[in-house]
Design a protein that fits this description.
It contains 8 helices and 7 strands, in the order αααβαβαββαβαβαβ. By secondary structure, it is an alpha/beta fold. The protein has a single domain, classed as Vaccinia Virus protein VP39 (Rossmann fold), CATH 3.40.50. The model has no long low-confidence stretch (mean pLDDT about 95). Bound molecules: S-adenosylmethionine (SAM). The site of S-adenosylmethionine has 20 residues, from α4.
Length: about 250
């Protein structure tokens, strides 16, 4: 596939807000997914209004942070570990959102924010790296998100949890840490069991999770069973921080 064909694939009329952005910019700053499709998909099931404080956890190169600020006028704290805030600041300034997006270096277990500070938290292709421990939601996200605030994640995972071993077809490309990829049902249970969150919406990007997986595999020229779709897909989930227990669980 030529580079021009890849650039055309990155513009998808199912995601008209993301389609306004330069495909070269999206391709150059990609970190494992087309994060603007996922951000747009999440924005359809979240409340995002000007003046809201949003934490973009694991924002990578801050593309989704820039997108949310430009499209919804929210104030975004673009938090990442691997990408430096100075590098992200250059991108934020170049995109013209220096008054709305603040780049922050923060490890997920030592985040530098006040309790109840955020109206919303979003997390795109990142939560699996640190959010699967039973106490992560209660000890971290539930502290930062005000009661009544929303937490939205976009995660890639198997259609169903594997029973025992990884399916044979996936084995050649499966790394030991890939067990952090979970099904939508697993994520729902992960949130609900804490009683600190109520699931508001959760699906395969509104029926588009497999198509997005297939399209991204074409852009990346990957044709193995793990990447090409059929066994793995994109999902989105939005949970609201319950008001009940708000004080009981402060740590
Ligand atoms: C696959 S990248 C996705 C980046 C971006 N959301 C996107 O979709 O382009 C995962 C991001 O999670 C962040 N991350 C991983 N472990 C983290 C941790 N322990 N604390 C904070 N961020 C973390 C990394 O810095 C990385 O940028």
């Amino acid at each position: 596939m030529t580079h021009a064909e890849k650039m055309r694939l990155l513009i998808d009329d199912q995601y008209p807000l993301a389609a306004k952005y330069d495909p070269e910019w999206m391709f150059e700053n990609k970190m494992g997914c087309q994060c603007l499709w996922l951000a747009e998909s999440l924005s359809r099931i979240m409340e995002l209004r000007p003046g809201m404080r949003v934490l973009d956890m694991g924002c990578g190169k801050a593309l989704s942070s820039i997108f949310l600020a430009k499209e919804f006028g929210v104030t975004v704290f673009a938090n990442d570990l691997w990408i430096s805030p100075s590098e992200n600041w250059k991108r934020i300034c170049a995109a013209g959102v220096r008054d709305l997006v603040f780049p922050i270096h923060g490890e997920a277990h030592a985040l530098p924010y006040a309790s109840d500070f955020f109206d919303a938290v979003i997390c795109i292709n990142s939560f699996q790296f640190y959010g699967t421990a039973d106490n992560y939601l209660s000890d971290h996200i539930a502290q930062l998100l005000r009661p009544g605030g929303q937490f939205g994640i976009a995660v890639w995972g198997p259609d169903e949890e594997f029973k025992g071993e990884v399916p044979k077809a996936l084995e050649p490309n499966w790394w030991p840490d890939f067990y952090y990829f979970h099904s939508l049902d697993w994520w729902k249970w992960h949130f609900e069991k804490t009683r600190l969150f109520s699931i508001e919406a959760g699906d395969d990007l509104g029926g588009d999770g497999l198509r997005v997986t297939e399209r991204w595999a074409k852009v990346m020229e990957k044709d193995d069973a793990l990447h090409r779709g059929g066994l793995m897909r994109w999902n989105r989930l939005v949970a609201r921080r319950n008001s009940a227990y708000a004080e009981d669980f402060r740590v």
